[in-house]
């Protein structure tokens, strides 16, 4: 009811429409400003001396030859700069969480190939690279830990001496009483063991920073491409011993992030320290090799799961052991718990699972550390759960869509065995529409024909939800020592009647300059061009938690709308004073405050703004001057769940093992879509990244802990050849928890795609009897599955 | 235009930064002659971005795979990270900054509910047909790969004015985009090609009438 009234008040003119993006003109004409476009007078350039061994003690870092290289201005070790460590914490007992510190530069120990050991500052980026090559670093090599199995093995070398069995996080979040009895008595028990490859989120713009001390403001200005400007400010201030006020983080245009940039990097802090020491601006731009080997990775997980079903295919219990290889360090602010805690909390997915037990662990290894990556654990657990259902369907000889129908949550709100309350969604409707679409397009007939011809064509589905709008309550459940969740906005009208909006979120491709402006323009009845969004500047924005976890429109957009409404209240109060009527007799109209019941009587915003600022003497005594309003927004429940069903059709090519995606259908529901074209863009891009994980991308390490993927020659990022067109259908279950009715839409594509593709591959393999549960599904894997005899003979 | 702005990388008037010999080179970029004094080892993309401050061209991998640095060299798309600037002497270079026509914005004011209020358009919103097609199809999100795709498509359409969709997809597969899933890029280029074809046919029909 409340929503309907507000909708009428908004006029519904811009929200829900695919208006062209505000960001586009500058980005299309080369006038965007990315961090590497920032150039300051006297600016120096930094590069890092990095560890060449996976695990060892530093016995000496000799930079004397570095300093003699022409163009090099300075070179610093950890001891030279004396920065405090970056330490991310959970409020959990030592049995569940072992805190570990990440030094900004390695001090006495190196834990992965690529770990920064020293910073070289030179007059050009080329000279800085020359300097790096002249460094001499001595190591006492320790045996590396290069996998999750090895990390947990008896007598394994320790990556952090304080982390017994290399375990940083170990939680049993849920254990339904009597679950073992349920499995013992069940008609059917199916199992899945699944491993997922280590991936790089791979924003096309690598990380980077430009740091400079501003004497007039007595402030370090740190330009950096981060999704979390205020949290970078906190860490920079702590590491460098500055007041928070004395650090200003400015985020220019960002060339993607996908989670990799929602953690604090060591290099941006080291560059800032060098800038403070030298009192000259210092720029650091990561090269692609460092981005692939020494930034943050994600996704490497190992699931051992089983599910019990009754004779009708209804799930009775889910039991899973999840081990996440988090690499060498805990990322700030999320810690190494980011992946196991997400998986353990949400694995029951979209199904009515009555009994649940889960153990989630984070192990540390001698690999580049893990950060959140779009979807965070959900691509993996959704894949595992969907594989369990597919396997159960086969065992019970049920249609794979039918078994899902029997188990999907349909009565909302639904409180699951994991304690989470799921707000209304269209779980069943999205599955039905997805299946109907593929049937109507004739894919099932084509599959029959293909099979008759000996070709391998498969159809696969994935049903899932995506928790978005995590407020502080949801993050507090995770027991983070710093608890994200709320957001702030200020909406300001200037004397000319145009509006400036701030948000604590940080768009890096998500089009917030457009969508947030749509929300504000509708709330106030303004043209889009009269609203300008500001983000990514810790001096301009009071506070914010940045952009991750598909939170920006759900949480940030709600704060923006609330603040706009409060500005509207002020405008109405001004008009009421002018007319000498109670404020209740006024309303917001198109670019004006109007008299209720007499829409012809109106005062335009420019006139009210002029009154407020330039003729405040005319206002009644006691009127608060200015036209500024602020609002904060938080979600005090478990959050809101977007949902979708993906359907994929694949053909396996027997000669090469290639998986060709013939058709991809996505039926998604993210509540009210502020800008449907933007939502579709998020779906398509997310699906492309999900397919990348399902079929192509993987960072592997050899026995010495050397990363194998050091360039795009070894890390296969899919192109337009591999990524299919995606048909998108929208359903809309408006969200009651957010001010706009919107749910988050940033990650769903990535969450569903691996499961849909893997299920389709398995459907295609069905005549062979082979089943695959791990990703990436490489051509070799497929070829082996299609031609087992060939491989048996060749190994004989 | 003769003297470029001082290199952002080198302190003006200082000695050679690295001990390398410096070289004077003349580059023809977007129809302007630029004299650059720099090291011979400096790549074309670095000179464009940091010496000439044409920062629209981006660097994504520095090994010729991602294509974010694609510019036109004598009309053909090249990876400017794989060339030394010195190798581009004598050639006509075009970067993304040259695509939009000069002059006042062509796009009308943004739509909205305000009755009669004319909001001032943002400066610099004039876009070429290709750029407009990218915008209409949401063929860019973060915008980092966009200049490379624009120059790739511009060079391709000049060479193949009448491509089919498979050919467009083949060309789009030359560069990497992490945001869009490529489908909108293919659609935008196809739409631009169709519009140009229609304009050509219209022109030739008019000539016949004359």
The main sheet of chain A comes to: 7 strands, mixed
Largest interface, chains and sizes: A-B, 83 and 82 residues
Largest sheet features of chain B:
5 strands, mixed
Report low-confidence residues of chain A grouped into runs of 5 or more. Answer: 1-10
**Would you tell me the structural class of the helices and strands of chain B?**
alpha+beta
CATH superfamily of the largest domain in chain A: Aldehyde oxidase/xanthine dehydrogenase, molybdopterin binding domain
Which strands sit side by side, in order, in the main sheet of chain B? 2-1-5-3-4
Output mean pLDDT of chain B: 86
What can be said about this structure in brief?
Chain A is of the alpha+beta class.
Give an overview in words.
Chain A has 796 residues and is of the alpha+beta class. In chain A, strands 3-7-1-14-11-12-13 form a 7-stranded mixed beta sheet, with helices on both faces. Chain A has a 5-stranded mixed beta sheet with strand order 9-17-16-15-10, sandwiched between helices. In chain A, strands 20-28-29-30 form a 4-stranded mixed beta sheet, with helices on both faces. The longest helix of chain A is centred in the last third of the chain and has 28 residues, at 552-579. Chain A is globular. Chain B folds into 2 domains: 23-98, Ubiquitin-like (UB roll), CATH 3.10.20; 129-209, DNA polymerase, domain 1, CATH 1.10.150.120. Chain B has a 5-stranded mixed beta sheet, with helices on both faces. Chain B is of the alpha+beta class. Chains A and B meet through α2, α5 and α20 of A and α1, α2, α3, α4 and α5 of B.
